[in-house]
Amino acid sequence: MRPTPTLSPGRIPVIAALLLLLGAGSGCGDVTRPNADVRFVAIIVPDSQLRPGFWMQAVAEPLDAAGRLLEGRTVTWRSLTPTTLAVGVDGRLLALAPGEGRARATVGSVSSVIRLELRNPPVASVVFTADTARLLLPAGSQQLVAVARDSEGVEILRPGIRWESSASRIADVATTGRVSAVAAGRADVIAVAEDRADTIVVVVEAPASPTAPQIHGTAPGLVTPGQTLVVNGNGFAGSVSGNAVLLDGIPLTVNAASPTQLTLTLPGAAQFACRATGPAALQVSTPGGIGVANVMFQMAAQRALAPGQSIVLSTATEARCVELAPADGRYLVTIQNVARVVGTQPIALTLGGVTTDRSGTPPLLSSAMPANPAPRAHAAVRAIEPVAAGVAPRGTFAAARGAALAVPTPGEVVPLRVANLDSQDPCAVFTPIGARTVFVGPHVVILEDTTPTLNGAPTLRGTIDPLYAQLGQEFETVVWPILERFGNPLAMDTRLDANGRLAIVFTPRMNQMLGGSALAAALPCDFFARAQQPSSNVGEFLYAQVPTSSGPGAGPGTTARWMAEIRATIAHESKHIVSMAERYARGFPQEDPWLEEATARISEELFARAIYGTQQLGDHGFDATLRCEIFLGGAGSPCPDSPRAMLPHLEGLWEYLDRPAARSPLGAAAANDLSWYGSGWAFVRWVIDQGLGTETAFLTALTQGSLSGLANLEARAGRSWEQMLGEWSLALSLDGRPGFIPADPRGRFPSWDLTSLFAGLCSAVGPCGDLGAGATFTRAHPLEPRPARTGGLGLEIPALVGGGFVAIELSGGTATTRQLLQLKGYRGAALPASARMAVVRID
């Protein structure tokens, strides 16, 4: 054992128990009152922490009532935690194991207790004392020894090693590290301490016996799960029941038997552990003994991918085990959680594997398991619009005609109600207002709140009518045709106000509710009578913010900023009205929030297309729209009248790809998470672009369908969520990557060049253009795959939410090697049922 330095002047001593006697209740020790002149015992140690296997010298000082040192007194030492701390008669403290150590010093009848934290340093390496262990059937066993060391090579005492066997059906390992023979074959036993590991090969053999059966060969020569296998040899039992046959430790069914031949049936792949193609032990047990021979066994599905080719393993059985053969080139592997609800518990798993050569002989796994990556800090994404407040009300649609809005004339002031979005029930709490009619078109009425002041500040009422008229004209010529691609915004009109128009109410009260974060909102309350939903205006309504400043520039609150942000927002919120109207009219349930918001973002995208002249499947980059939106008509803007339409989409998608394991397109994975607005849009946009008929037909069917959420999208796409999530994860990871051409068109993001978009954002407002650190776009692409080399893999994924994925870039293989990829549960746990894998060869 290595001793620690002796007590030095540079260390601060720990005085135990003194304050307790004085009534302060110190937690450092317990003291009893003496009958002689010793009143206190002070214990002094060099440090309050001690490493197991090391020692330190403690000093106990008897003190009188005045705190003076009393000489010549005998000190008795005792350990109160003998399993973690040994104490010598002279006060030497030796740490035996991690945990808490307590030692008591006694002088006469006065005692004091010192408490130490017994802590090991981080583990830098774990190494077995042997490379191979050999066990003999039927019950051989051996204690395995693995030594953990720190960064200086010093052995760590009791490091808390976790033991795992790659094939417990062959060699089972206990929590103590004792390995026991179960069946003939080969297993890898892994010793893991913190994030470091080493592997030992355990070979289980049968005892020699002159009467044991002998195996000469099999037909076919390559054995695979589910097949019928004929085994030739001698010494077999003549009856079916007299032969017990195992392959790689798994029982096989004996269909027919003779002394020289057995006919067997192998179970399916799900019964076998994931393993690399190579020799496996075929074991035949008879009353005369145990016969063993190696056969070539291919358990994993082998995939030979050319550059650009990909596979999606869309079931848990497929995803748990695949073999890249050959393994040359570079691969992108994505691991997904296909849980259909984002709020379910995240899954944890490990991507393992091993490289084999053409002979099928696997080398040892690497001795170090990569540490879990620390989460990267990143700025919160600014959201143009959060989730609209409101509840889905219940009731009939019989309109209270006295409250319904007839077609007003320009200048007419009509009474309306503005729901209180800050209330727990916005459909019940409202503010009455007078709204002046500013614009009346064939399909829209625009009204302005006549409130002159709000909270002491004057409003801009009556001063921006030309802007309202511009919005009205744009609604009629641009927005209305977009809405009709989803369905009929007036599907409920004859059961409501029957005025043939959608109404937009601009009110400064929207600026104040929800902290001003919602530019606009459309509420289901308005589809019901006021007797049921008091805040209802009994019609197709949306409510929007107003500008607060008529000053120049595009600063917050200005008319220029407001116009830039409200235009696409109207298209977004109006799409909500279409969805509610179509589904209420048909008696169908409302759409799931994530898909409703994703398709509303599609409506914004269609608006951007109409303004910027872009097209579906155009593979548009940064210059097509985002360059215009970044500057909002300011200095350097190439398009002074540009709306902010696509920037929020890319902000949300950037945040999703920055932490794809912790984010989901299916909804918020954490408080204040708005990334799903962007990733949900990206998922639906990608699905629409996969050649599924016309865009309009797809959107209409999605809006008018009786299903909702993923079931709705699956029905329109004709593909499962599991398949689509794998394909989409590959497309997001590699779209626009220079030199990469996917063989499957689903490996692209056809309408947008994501690489160009993200690089442009980083150059325009981030560090890529030497403009300083960007608040959001801090690098040229948000997704950073984890690098890995072929060989022994042990990549841990401690948390993966539903709809999230992890990307791993694998390289280093050769044309003469195979690479096994194995999805396993986290640190010995079972593989979660929702784990999936997709693989694409990059080059």
Characteristics:
single chain, 843 residues, disordered N terminus
Q: Can you give a write-up of this model?
A:
- 19% of the residues lie in helices and 29% in strands.
- The two termini are 53 Å apart.
- A hairpin with a 2-residue loop joins β24 (253-258) and β25 (261-265).
- Strands 28, 30, 32, 33, 43 and 45 form a 6-stranded mixed beta sheet that branches. Strands 34-35-36-39-41-40 form a 6-stranded mixed beta sheet.
- It is built from 13 helices and 46 strands.
- The chain has 843 residues and is α+β, with helices and mostly antiparallel strands.
Average pLDDT reading: 88
| Record field, number of beta strands | 46
**Sheet having the most strands:** 6 strands, mixed
Write down the overall geometry.
Answer: globular
Itemize the secondary structure elements and their pairings:
Blueprint: H1 18-21, E1 40-44, E2 49-50, E3 55-57, E4 59-63, E5 76-79, E6 85-87, E7 92-95, E8 99-107, E9 110-118, E10 125-128, E11 132-136, E12 141-143, E13 146-149, E14 162-165, E15 171-173, E16 178-181, E17 185-193, E18 196-205, E19 214-219, E20 222-223, E21 228-234, E22 244-247, E23 250-251, E24 253-258, E25 261-265, E26 278-286, E27 289-297, E28 301-303, E29 310-313, H2 316-319, E30 321-324, E31 329-337, E32 347-353, E33 355-357, E34 413-419, E35 430-440, E36 444-449, E37 453-454, E38 457-458, H3 465-486, E39 502-506, H4 509-512, E40 520-521, E41 541-544, H5 559-586, H6 593-612, H7 626-631, H8 647-658, H9 675-688, H10 695-704, H11 709-717, H12 721-734, H13 754-765, E42 786-789, E43 793-800, E44 805-813, E45 817-825, E46 835-841
Parallel strand pairs: 2-9, 11-18, 20-27, 28-30, 36-39, 39-41, 42-44
Antiparallel strand pairs: 1-4, 3-7, 5-8, 6-7, 8-9, 10-13, 12-16, 14-17, 15-16, 17-18, 19-21, 21-25, 22-23, 22-26, 24-25, 26-27, 29-46, 30-45, 31-44, 31-46, 32-43, 32-45, 33-45, 34-35, 35-36, 37-38, 40-41
Helix pairs in contact: 3-5, 3-6, 5-6, 6-9, 8-9
